[in-house]
Design goal:
The complex is a heterotetramer of chains A (351), B (537), C (161) and D (373). By secondary structure, chain A is mainly alpha-helical. Chain A is built from 14 helices and 4 strands. Chain D has one domain: ABC transporter involved in vitamin B12 uptake, BtuC, CATH 1.10.3470. In chain D, the strands form 2 sheets. Chain D has a two-stranded antiparallel ribbon with strand order 1-4. Chain D has a two-stranded antiparallel ribbon with strand order 2-3. The chains are: A mainly alpha (351), B alpha/beta (537), C alpha+beta (161), D mainly alpha (373).
């Protein structure tokens, strides 16, 4: 009989052992930090900063998971659109908030266009989305590598000095829009703690808009498509259109995400830099408790926080404790392990 | 054949699923070389009987069965289909269990290939043996010869006509050296008339070799033609077990459907007055796998309840699915004289039709979402209901309060047992899930409601509630209903007219008061056969 | 399926074959280890430390029939050898018939010093293990540069441009 | 009419090969490389890469798609080589030694990979890819932190200066090209590593023979239809695991052959792109997720590597930047994988549609024509 009495065993099977272990691992790291001489205020500040930098990437995965397209391993397509926007913004010499929002605005049309094409492609390959997304993402990044070399950018900040053409691998946004969001209403406590209010507000706004969207008629339809495409079709929904829409939204969020990342990090990273970014986002949302076909805002929040916490704390704590740089490897194992775990988990089919 | 004892005897076999008796003290015997026709309506217990015979795990999982099954006088209790195969019982399934990319030969000897050991056998085991293709081919040819049919041993299954696929399956079963009993479940369902003739001849050939055959078919004519004995199952009882000689198709048909409870059935045919013609369907074909509709025309009048009955796989389910745009379809459908485009669920919904699918879990519900979503979703998407504007009308978002109110309304009206409107649909029982599906359809306030197999898989109490609900909506709100069901009794209970679908066509339309054998005859494939003969003549 | 009822005779044979394979595996690992083991031999023509043997002027040293090394006093050449048994042939300038002898290298050594003067003088200890002290090693390169997960997690603190 | 149709079919079925052929032919003149140079490169690269690509065939045969998990085999091979270097075992014996030590490791890895993929039916490829990442982490843990610390390492020369962990680049001096040079045939200015080709030929013969065995037939059955195979009594999961184990072991040997030709090894990166290049090659050769043959392997290796040889030069000559060629070849590699996956999925859908259409026509035709009247 249907009794939804919450019991711990059920919770554990739902949430999964790996996630619980990660959670306790992180708690342990925080507990151990003071004993190995890691500054707590700096660490926490770091966690917030990284959380804000990467939060939008994790958020960008939600629409596609909800519409049944799986994990967006091709998030780099969105990141590329963002890179085009930000390089154009620097090229035009926009500065301050103008530079930031200019970059976002310039990125949007590309993001929508790329997302539309990418979505159409994914509709052709239902069931194989993730593998294809990954390779479309890789191919897109490599294609743009060529483009960065041949596109006629001229801004001296961006172009290799000695060749006079081709963009640098790392471009500083100092003097353009570096830290514009981070510094906005930032709260400083002591020398080591900065709370990047503006960036988190902006992330929050994006999350709120997505949350609202998922509650509109279209958003509801999108969730239904992911939950049961046959049901959605029988209710008169165009499954393909909903999927394409979700891919576009994901791509747009990826584009905005990279601009937020740049303003905080201070640099535009071109060429192969976007290759690995989707994997980190995917690992984060999965750690947050999402599955291949269900994700919520809570998953994003928890996941981004846990994952970034892990990224911040493992190097500082483990390396100080063991005096080796083993943390990189631990991170590799943890983040890929959780992805494997999610992929091999039986998609729960109610029977 | 000889005078030896039966090779298979089924003794007092009973089986219940969750208190629901599906087989009740069934007994029969089978001798070597005998062909036994097993007939019965859907749900009469044929499938369950075969599952018991084959030791399907589902039987043990649901508490086993009572009685004994004996092979050569020895009781057997198989724990898996492989045990049954090892004991010499072969089965030819309704849906093909063949590998399309393999040749006839490869399929016939699948997993029983002839092999020559290779040197690696001693290292990695028998699976390193090399296939002996000439021998495989020889064995396949021998099996085909036994069947007495023409089959190319090197043709790919994917390039074969359906009839040949069926032969391949049978050939596979008889190549097992031990096969003594062969079960064929509706082997002629997908065959053309001439192919079916060849198949029946092949069955006789096999029987001559001493193999006993259990032949399950709804085409009673074929049963009469080929079987030595016939066993009729009805409601889990083996009500008849007698030699075929002297039995007519009509007799079997009436045994099949005749019910002891038949008397209380007729509630629908009270000679009601109906409005104008609401729905007109002409020349409808639907490509729904397993339920192909070939050529169906009918019309429904306002306020009427029209029933579609017939055996499984004959196409009755395809009719609503095709009209609602869920499967590729053609022909013309008009609602109130206005054409409704096919292949578009949205158009059908917008025109004022709604559909409660037979595939509750697959199509009918969002199992992982809450009840209010399930009920309000279609109305929201098609009619823009349950949305409220925010940010000064910039966006419209879900009106959770409205959805909750709607859900609570239906929970009350249909007596849905749930903890809250936020409960997930998958947590409800089958009967309550069915009511959710009905609520979803009612929520769009349709002029015409298609209900497909509304009582499948739900318990008796819930069945009655569902039927009463349909009846009430028809009487109180004047909702026109087209109901498709495999259960003749429930159709007779609430419909004004009942159409029987056979082989993708309407075999005939009867009033619910018609005699039971009439329905049985329409279902038995005879009508279609007669029609064909009339055409060919 | 068919594996569950294997004839006991066949089963015994299979056990034997499989056991034999394990033995063969171990044997082959050992064999390749022994035959493939590389040794660095320093062919040395320096005076012995105690002055008991002096460098030979213009000796031609050939190992395993390779091209001869022409050695003058104080020379030291490196020869890479595989396996443990080798033939050394030394042609002295004096025109005497060449000295030929076989050389057995100990298995567990990597680097050996072969002193030609001692060998010619038929002194013991012409072959000794050579232990390198303060082996110069190239500086470490950057290690573990993995594509995945490195780039997005670059340090938050701004690197110098 | 039908000729035109079959031409169209031929074109769509071989779209990837034809496209690639065209790009390659277009790129050769602009690279300015001599045909002789390209031919020699091709021979070298055939010897270097073919074995690895052949490792992909059996999982495709068993319906598991492209085995991105072959990287696990490559890592096992590298582990074997590290040990061979550690014990200073050189020459062909060193290679055999490495292969022998790599074998049990790769069998274990294959078993793990197969079991994981069995739990992810329907998304084997992406899971295999992520599994390679995951095991890469473990590989690094062992090689970078345990070797020299927990596992004793004999040769200090291969350790990092901190005393544990293997150096980033290993010099494979002792085994360098020892297989290639075992039977080097010099023919009119070309050097033919005959021994390597013999090894490859033996593997091809094995693959051909294997397909004729009962196990091979079972794999085919599993690849075509898992449910039917299961109901016929074929142990599906076990068969799939065996396919992956064989593939992993072959990848182990393939990586050893690859690295002996290269002559040195990037300890932590050499396997990163193993599956990428192998998969790209077999797809360029005209294989798909469901179908692959030995000719696909050879065509693919030749086409992909000719392009790899010529693009950096062509990029240099056309755009004045060698990096463009470098990026272009990676773009081509990834792009070709994406393209063939898309084409395959698209074609499969169209075929399903066509099959249904045929069914419908047959079922409607099966009805007596007159009945519609």
């Amino acid at each position: 009989m249907p009794k939804s009495t919450p019991n711990i065993k059920q919770f554990v099977t739902d949430f999964g052992w790996p996630r619980i272990i990660i959670f306790f691992f992180l708690a342990l790291l925080f507990a151990a930090a003071p004993f190995v001489g890691v500054r707590m205020d700096a660490s926490i500040s770091d966690v917030f900063n990284r959380f804000g930098q990467n939060g939008l990437f994790v958020l960008a995965l939600v629409p596609m998971i909800q519409s049944g397209c799986g994990l967006n391993f091709g998030l780099s397509i969105g990141i590329i659109a963002g890179l085009i926007g930000s390089t154009l913004s620097v090229q035009l010499g926009l500065i301050g908030f103008g530079g930031f929002f200019g970059a976002v605005a310039l990125a949007l049309p590309f993001a929508v266009l790329f997302g539309w094409v990418y979505g159409k492609l994914l509709n052709k390959v239902k069931g194989e989305e993730m593998t294809i997304a990954m390779y479309v993402g890789f191919a897109g990044v490599m294609f743009m590598c060529i483009m960065w070399l041949v596109l006629p950018y001229t801004s001296p900040t961006m172009v290799w000095g000695y060749a006079g053409k081709g963009l640098r691998t790392t471009i500083t946004v100092e003097g353009f829009y570096r830290q514009v969001l981070n510094e906005f209403l930032a709260i400083r406590i002591g020398p080591n703690f900065v709370f990047p209010t503006g960036m988190l507000l902006f992330d929050g706004l994006c999350a709120y808009l997505l949350w609202l969207f998922m509650r509109t008629k279209t958003g509801t339809a999108m969730t239904a498509v992911g939950s049961n495409p046959d049901y959605a079709r029988a209710s008169g929904i165009s499954v393909d259109r909903m999927r394409t829409t979700s891919v576009i939204i994901s791509t747009v969020l990826g584009a905005v995400g990279i601009v937020v990342f740049q303003q905080s990090y201070g640099f535009i990273q071109l060429y192969t830099a976007p290759l690995a970014m989707p994997f980190a986002a995917v690992a984060a949302i999965l750690i947050g408790g999402a599955s291949v076909n269900k994700a919520s805002m809570v998953n994003v929040l928890v996941g981004a926080f846990l994952f970034q916490g892990l990224l911040t704390m493992t190097p500082s704590v483990i390396n100080s404790a063991l005096h080796t740089d083993i943390s990189e490897v631990v991170r590799l194992i943890v983040s890929n392990g959780i992805i494997i775990y999610a992929l091999t988990r039986k998609t729960k089919v109610a029977k | 054949m000889g005078q030896q004892g039966p090779i298979l005897s089924v003794e007092h076999v009973s089986k219940e699923f969750y208190g629901n008796v599906v087989l009740n003290d069934v007994c029969f015997e089978l001798k070597a070389g005998e062909i036994l026709g097993l007939v019965g309506e859907n749900g009469a217990g044929k499938t369950t009987l075969m599952r018991i015979l084959f030791g399907m795990p589902v039987i043990a999982e649901t508490g086993g069965y009572k009685g004994r099954i004996c092979l050569d006088g020895q009781e057997v209790r198989f724990s898996s289909p492989f045990d049954a195969l090892d004991s010499g019982i072969g089965m030819v399934h309704q849906e093909f269990s063949l590998i399309p990319g393999f040749t006839t030969t490869e399929n016939i000897v699948l997993n029983r290939e002839s092999m020559r050991p290779s040197i690696l056998n001693d290292v990695f085991g028998d699976r390193m043996s090399v296939l002996d293709r000439p021998d495989m081919r020889k064995r396949a040819e021998a099996a085909i010869a036994k069947l007495g049919v023409k089959l190319d041993p090197d043709l790919l299954i994917s390039e074969m006509p359906v009839g040949h696929k069926q032969f391949t399956e049978i050939a596979r079963e008889i190549t097992r050296t031990k096969t003594r009993i062969l079960v064929l479940d509706e082997p002629t369902a997908v065959l053309t008339e001439s192919e079916a003739e060849v198949l029946l001849a092949a069955l006789r050939n096999i029987a001559k070799l001493g193999i006993a055959i259990i032949f399950i078919s709804h085409r009673l004519r074929e049963v009469v033609d080929v079987a030595d004995r016939v066993v009729v199952l009805r409601d889990g009882l083996a009500i008849k077990d007698l030699p075929v000689a002297g039995v007519s198709v009509r007799d079997i048909a009436s045994w099949m459907v005749g019910r002891t409870v038949a008397a209380d059935a007729v509630a629908g045919g009270e000679g009601r007055e109906f409005g104008d013609e609401l729905l007109k369907v002409e020349g409808l074909w639907v490509d729904m796998p397993g339920e192909t509709v070939r050529d169906v025309s009918f019309s429904v009048r306002k306020g009427e309840i029209l029933g579609f009955g017939g055996l499984a796989g004959q196409g009755k389910l395809g009719i609503p699915n095709g009209i609602m745009g869920l499967y590729p379809a053609g022909g013309s459908v008009g609602l109130r004289g206005k054409g409704v485009p096919l292949d578009s669920p949205r158009a059908a919904l917008e025109a004022g039709m709604a559909f409660v699918s037979e595939d509750r879990r697959g199509v009918g519900l969002l199992l992982d979402e809450s009840l209010d979503w399930n009920i309000a979703f279609t109305a929201m998407q098609v009619q823009g209901a349950y949305l409220r504007p925010i940010l000064g009308g910039l966006f419209k978002i879900r009106d959770e309060a409205g959805m909750r109110k709607l859900t609570e309304e239906y929970v009350g009206a249909l007596d849905i047992k749930c903890t809250s409107p936020k409960q997930k649909a998958k947590e409800l029982s089958g009967g309550n899930q069915q009511k959710i599906c009905l609520a979803k359809a009612f929520a769009v306030k349709p002029d015409l409601l298609f209900v497909s197999e509304p009582t499948r898989g739900i318990d008796v109490g819930a069945k009655k509630l569902v039927l009463d609900t349909l009846h009430r909506y028809n009487r109180e709100y004047g909702t026109t209903i087209v109901m498709v069901s495999s259960e003749l009794e429930e159709l007779r209970a609430i419909c004004d007219r009942i159409a029987i679908v056979d082989e993708g066509r309407i075999a005939g339309i009867l009033p619910p008061t018609a005699e039971l054998p009439e329905f049985g005859l329409l279902m038995s494939g005879l009508a279609a056969r007669n029609a064909r003969e009339a055409v060919n003549a | 399926m068919s594996e569950k009822k294997v004839d006991p005779k066949i089963a015994a044979r299979r056990l034997l074959v499989r056991g034999g394979l394990v033995v063969a595996y171990v044997f082959l690992v050992g064999l390749f280890f022994v035959t493939g083991k590389g040794h660095t031999v320093l062919v040395d023509n320096k005076d012995a430390a105690d002055g008991s043997a002096v460098g030979i002027n213009g000796a031609l040293v050939s190992i395993d029939g390779r091209e001869a090394l022409e050695q003058y006093p104080g020379d030291r050449d490196i020869v890479l050898l595989k396996g443990q048994r080798h033939r050394v042939r030394i042609q002295l300038p004096s025109g005497e018939p060449p000295i030929e002898m076989s050389l057995a290298l100990p298995l567990n050594t990597d680097m050996l010093l072969l002193s030609i003067p001692k060998l010619v003088a038929k002194q013991a200890g012409y072959l000794e293990e050579f232990v390198q002290r303060d082996q110069p090693r190239p500086a470490d390169e950057k290690v573990g540069d993995n594509n995945a997960f490195t780039s997005p997690d670059a340090p938050v603190t701004t690197p110098a441009p | 009419m039908s000729g035109k149709k079959s031409l169209g079919r031929f074109l769509t079925e071989n779209a990837v090969v034809i496209l690639f052929l065209l790009i390659t032919i277009a790129a050769i003149p602009s690279s300015g490389l001599s045909i002789q140079y390209i031919l020699q490169e091709m021979i070298t690269r055939l010897g270097r890469n073919t074995f690895l690509v052949l490792a992909l065939i059996l999982p495709i045969y068993a319906g598991m798609g492209l085995n991105f998990g072959m990287t696990l085999g490559a890592m096992s091979g590298q582990l074997g080589l590290i040990l061979a270097i550690n014990f200073n075992v050189g020459g062909v014996e060193g290679l055999a030694f490495a292969a022998l030590l790599g074998t049990p490791v790769s069998v274990l890895m294959g078993y793990i990979c197969g079991s994981v993929l069995n739990k992810a039916k329907g998304r084997e490829m992406v899971t295999g890819y992520m599994l390679a990442f995951f095991i890469n982490g473990i590989y690094q843990l062992v090689i970078l932190y345990m070797m020299g610390a927990i596992f004793p390492i004999r040769s200090p020369a291969i350790l990092l200066s901190r005393g544990y962990g293997i150096r980033n680049t290993l010099n494979l001096e002792g085994v360098r090209q020892s297989l290639d040079n075992l039977l080097m045939l010099r023919l009119g200015g070309y050097a033919l590593p005959l021994a390597t080709f013999i090894v490859i030929a033996v593997l091809c013969a094995f693959v051909i023979w294997f397909k004729k065995t009962k196990l091979g037939q079972d794999m085919r059955a599993v690849g075509h239809d898992m449910t039917v195979a299961e109901s016929a009594g074929v142990p599906v999961d076990r068969t799939r695991i065996i396919a992956i184990i064989i593939s992993t072991v072959l990848a182990c040997y393939g990586q050893i052959i690859f690295l002996q030709n290269m002559g040195n090894m990037a300890t932590y990166n050499a396997h990163d792109q193993t599956s990428f290049f192998a998969v790209a090659a077999i797809l360029v050769g005209g294989a798909s997720v469901k179908k692959a043959s030995i000719p696909n392997v050879f065509i693919g290796v030749i086409l992909l590597h000719v392009l790899f040889v010529v693009t950096p030069r062509a990029g240099q000559n056309l755009f004045g930047s060698a990096m463009i060629g470098e990026y272009f070849r990676q773009f081509i590699g990834y792009g070709v994988i994406a393209l063939s996956l898309v084409l395959y999925a698209w074609r499969a859908r169209k075929d399903a549609l066509r099959a249904r259409e045929g069914l419908r026509r047959a079922s409607i035709a099966a009805a007596p024509e007159g009945a519609a009247k």
